[in-house]
TrEMBL record:
Ranges in coiled-coil conformation: 92-119
Membrane topology summary: Single-pass type IV membrane protein
Lineage: Eukaryota, Viridiplantae, Chlorophyta, core chlorophytes, Chlorophyceae
Entry's family note: Belongs to the syntaxin family.
Domain of life: Eukaryota
UniProt record, GO biological process: exocytosis; intracellular protein transport; vesicle docking; vesicle fusion
Molecular-function GO term, any one: SNAP receptor activity
UniProt-recorded name of the protein: t-SNARE coiled-coil homology domain-containing protein
Ribonucleoprotein listed as a keyword: no
Gene Ontology, cellular component aspect: endomembrane system; plasma membrane; SNARE complex
Record-annotated T-SNARE coiled-coil homology domain positions: 211-273
Length: 313
């Protein structure tokens, strides 16, 4: 699939004379198109390039979000945690914006592909339609996979936040905290009831700093989760589209194979007919030659000219 996205030009029918060389970041197309199909394919390749640029942008942002998440684990001060979480939230919001834009472009590409099948010579099952369908399926799969990575990141952030809260609570209380207590803190953001003993032993100020950090992280994680859930929904939408596109590709492949079988059967039939015709002519020629030879032998044996000479004498 990556090969298809990387070099579309190899899949465009030669008779269409579309000059396109698509690599994983470039599209170079000559603007000398004269037919409706060529013009439609130029628009298609332009849309493909725009979508690929969007996918590359999402990938870059995803790497930044992962790096920011790793950096945030070491922060303790509430002010630093808040600033960091706001920056991370802004990045995820940016991903949401780009992802929705790419999704809309892919959906528009689907409609363009459907409309293109009405062009003469570009109907369902044609090389043009197969090229469009295969490349579009690759773009959908790429977006789905990227959104899947954000879904995994969402699960990772949840697990890491849960573990961090457990460690912070244990540090303050001096004892292991049950999973139920950790879940309660994550759910409500409140933990003062766990810190009563710590208030007396360590001083209220230090304990409240830890509590403030936990509450800030709790707020930030919930906000971040909402944004990541939007990306997860795009993942689910793309998963459905990829599955549907896969069924379409399977159907097209079966049509191609069926057509190839028909062509092969027809070719074999033509060859057999030619062989039969050739054999028929050969045997007919042999029959004619044999008949001529038989006539010559009979004539030589009878020698009718002798009878004619005797009759004359």
């Amino acid at each position: 699939m990556n090969d298809l996205l990387g070099s579309v030009g190899h899949h465009v029918p030669a008779e269409r004379k579309i000059s396109g060389d698509i690599e994983l970041g470039d599209v170079h197309i000559r603007t000398d198109a004269t037919t409706d199909i060529q013009q439609a394919m130029q628009r298609f390749f332009k849309s493909v390039e725009e979508i690929k640029l969007g996918l590359a942008e999402i990938k870059g942002l995803q790497l930044e979000v992962v790096e920011m998440n790793e950096h945030g684990k070491a922060l303790i001060k509430t002010k630093e945690v808040k600033q960091h979480q706001e920056e991370m939230q802004a990045k995820v919001n940016q991903v949401n914006t780009v992802a929705h834009r790419v999704k809309r472009k892919i959906e528009a590409l689907d409609k363009e592909n459907e409309a293109a099948t009405q062009l003469p010579g570009a109907g369902i099952g044609s090389a043009n339609e197969r090229t469009r369908t295969t490349i579009t399926a690759g773009l959908k799969k790429k977006l789905r996979d990227l959104m899947g990575e954000f879904s995994n990141l969402r699960n990772q952030i949840q697990e890491e936040y849960r573990a961090l809260v457990g460690r912070r609570l244990q540090t303050i209380t001096g004892t292991a905290v049950s999973d139920e207590e950790v879940d309660r803190v994550i759910e409500t953001g409140e933990a003062e009831n766990l810190f009563q003993k710590a208030f007396n032993e360590q001083g209220r100020g230090q304990v409240m700093d830890v509590l403030a950090e936990i509450q800030e992280r709790n707020r930030a994680v919930k906000d971040l989760e909402k944004s990541l859930l939007e990306l997860h929904q795009i993942f689910l939408d793309m998963a459905v589209l990829v599955e549907a596109q896969g069924q379409t590709l399977d159907s097209i492949q079966k049509q191609v194979e069926r057509s190839a079988n028909y062509v092969e059967t027809g070719t074999n039939a033509v060859v057999d007919a030619k062989n039969i015709q050739k054999n028929t002519r050969k045997w007919m020629l042999c029959g004619i030659i044999a008949a001529i030879i038989a006539i010559i032998i009979i004539v030589l044996a009878i020698q009718p000219w002798q009878y004619a000479r005797n009759a004359t004498g």
